[in-house]
């Protein structure tokens, strides 16, 4: 358990929300639930409690007594403030649950059957005082009053909505079975207490038609069967009260059990309706959007794209039922700032630029400027040469950084990676196109919003200006920018020398495609033939994007060859482009032979 120093004393205190405290409370709750079944059953169906069970009950009492000592050393919250003053803690406990714990912790079983006493020594179990002590054992069930609070604490640790519903149903089922168990025990005890009298009871009526003795288990199942049929107001009539006392008990049980059963049914209905309410709302939104798209004659392909995005968005927020801004709007501004700093401080710290040039206070203020953006597959975050002062942090999904004109993928970024630093810090046009390859969740940081939240911190603006002025001539070393092709520091893939070895990657692909399809070397593959007679080979226009998309293996060979030939860039001449293509094709033939 977690201990904290008290403000008034030097003694150690237990924190009320520590997981070890919750485990201890759950352990006591399990013991209490066991007693809720065992104590009524032993009073009704068992004339003499076994010595092993008496010792076990005594061990439970010792656990309760130890829990009382812990409660005197456990701090508590009062109006949101953690109280650690020992005198206040003792007074709070003595005026609260102390007396309930005291009555439920007393070892009453010691008075009727001491567990350490010699089993051969007889005890006056049939005296009235001994019977009274046996029934006083029911006081241990007062601990059930604390069970509701423990159940709520356990529920706070459940994040999955489906498991939460199962947990709620389990709680209802447990307490329903306890009530039915108590009614069954009371109904049997009422009849069994009159066994020595001349009154005709339901037990005598049940045993009258049987030639052999009935064991305790069958009698208990029969009583439990009667309890459930009475609680749900069915009453088949095969088990009925036979004398006025049993009728009185039956009427009392019917009134109480019907009220409790109605309460249970109401809770079950409320639980199901709450669980289905959000699903119904999702269905309404989905149907409404679908009708709107059809009414506006939106193309089918775009309709499917919109609906896939809506389904993914609903699935992401269905586990929590509340969106982020709905949760944060319920909190005060200081609490909201603390949560934002905790959630997003690590995101900004993953960017070495922030940790290198900005203080923790500036980073904490920048977390307030982060905005959530959702994208579907093939959505473009920004295009090459576009002007934008945003940078992005990937929370989930996949983003491809690619060449603007050829769609050649430089690199695919995954969760916990970032992009867009040059536009944010320097203000240059985008050097590549960012396109989502999956349903993607991004955190975006806009410079204009960042300046608002860091208004009183002048060093932020000055640092941004210094970084921008230090990145002249496309040298981004101060931003720790590395090329996606050669991994060298200071430049981007667009300006990489490896990229310029062939004086344009389109020429290599065109020439390779000419060889592959046996197109004449004097004809441009991207132009329609000028001859009035159509040739079969030109029926379908060759698109560069299609070439890159269908021939990924060729992309890898080109990039590998460019990296190998980078040191010899100065020795190459423009006329050697065809030689490069020949070498690539030779390598391709060698790989196929292998």
From TrEMBL:
Superkingdom assignment: Eukaryota
Domain (Cyclic nucleotide-binding): residue spans on this chain: 354-446
SMART domains hit by this protein: cNMP
Pfam family membership, one: cNMP_binding
UniProt entry keywords in alphabetical sequence: Ion channel, Ion transport, Membrane, Transmembrane, Transmembrane helix, Transport
Membrane topology: Multi-pass membrane protein
Biological processes per GO annotation: regulation of membrane depolarization; sodium ion transmembrane transport
PANTHER family in the record: I[[H]] CHANNEL, ISOFORM E
This protein's name: Cyclic nucleotide-binding domain-containing protein
């Amino acid at each position: 358990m977690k201990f904290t120093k008290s403000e008034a004393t030097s003694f150690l205190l237990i924190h009320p929300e520590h997981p070890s405290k919750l485990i201890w409370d759950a352990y006591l709750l399990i013991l209490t639930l066991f007693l809720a079944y065992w104590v009524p059953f032993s009073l009704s169906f068992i004339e003499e409690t076994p010595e092993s069970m008496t010792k076990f009950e005594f061990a439970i009492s010792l656990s309760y007594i130890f829990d009382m000592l812990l409660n005197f050393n456990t701090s508590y919250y009062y109006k949101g403030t953690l109280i650690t003053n020992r005198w206040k803690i003792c007074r709070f406990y003595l005026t609260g649950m102390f007396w309930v714990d005291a009555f439920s912790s007393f070892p009453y079983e010691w008075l009727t059957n001491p567990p350490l006493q010699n089993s051969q020594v007889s005890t006056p179990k049939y005296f009235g005082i001994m019977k009274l002590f046996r029934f006083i054992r029911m006081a241990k069930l007062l601990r059930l009053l604390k069970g509701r609070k423990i159940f709520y604490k356990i529920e706070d640790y459940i994040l999955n909505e489906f498991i939460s519903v199962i947990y709620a149903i389990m709680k209802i089922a447990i307490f329903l079975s306890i009530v039915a168990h108590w009614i069954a025990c009371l109904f049997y005890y009422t009849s069994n207490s009159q066994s020595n009298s001349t009154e005709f009871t339901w037990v005598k009526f049940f045993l009258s038609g049987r030639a052999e003795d009935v064991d305790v288990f069958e009698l208990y199942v029969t009583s439990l069967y009667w309890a459930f049929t009475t609680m749900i107001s069915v009453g088949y009539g095969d088990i009925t009260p036979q004398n006025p006392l049993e009728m009185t008990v039956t009427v009392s049980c019917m009134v109480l059990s019907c009220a409790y059963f109605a309460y249970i049914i109401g809770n079950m209905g409320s639980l199901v309706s709450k669980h289905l309410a959000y699903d119904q709302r999702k269905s309404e939104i989905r149907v409404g959007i679908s009708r709107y798209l059809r009414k506006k004659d939106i193309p089918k392909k775009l309709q499917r794209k919109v609906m896939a995005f809506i389904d993914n968005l609903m699935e992401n927020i269905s586990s929590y039922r509340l969106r982020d801004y709905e949760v944060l709007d319920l909190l005060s501004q200081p609490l909201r700032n603390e949560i934002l700093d905790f959630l997003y401080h690590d995101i900004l710290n993953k960017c070495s630029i922030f940790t290198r040039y900005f203080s923790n206070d500036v980073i904490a203020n920048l977390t307030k400027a982060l905005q959530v953006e959702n994208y579907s597959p093939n959505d473009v975050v920004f295009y090459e040469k576009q002007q934008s002062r945003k940078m992005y942090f990937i929370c989930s999904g996949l983003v491809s950084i690619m060449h603007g004109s050829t769609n050649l993928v430089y690199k695919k970024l995954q969760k916990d990676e970032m992009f867009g630093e040059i536009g944010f810090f320097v203000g240059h046009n985008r050097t590549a196109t960012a396109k989502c390859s999956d349903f993607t969740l991004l955190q975006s940081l806009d410079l204009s919003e960042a300046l608002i939240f860091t208004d009183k911190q002048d060093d932020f603006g000055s640092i941004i200006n210094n970084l921008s002025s230090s990145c002249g001539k496309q040298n981004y070393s101060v931003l720790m920018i590395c090329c996606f092709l050669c991994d060298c520091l200071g430049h981007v893939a667009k300006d990489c020398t490896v990229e310029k070895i062939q004086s344009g990657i389109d020429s290599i692909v065109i020439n390779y495609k000419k060889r592959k399809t046996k197109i004449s070397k004097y004809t441009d593959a991207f132009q329609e033939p000028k001859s009035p007679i159509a040739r079969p080979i030109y029926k379908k226009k060759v698109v560069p994007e299609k070439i890159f998309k269908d021939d990924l293996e060729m992309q890898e060979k080109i990039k590998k060859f460019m990296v190998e030939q980078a040191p010899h860039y100065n020795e190459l001449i423009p006329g050697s482009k065809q030689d490069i293509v020949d070498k690539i094709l030779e390598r391709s033939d060698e790989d196929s032979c292998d």
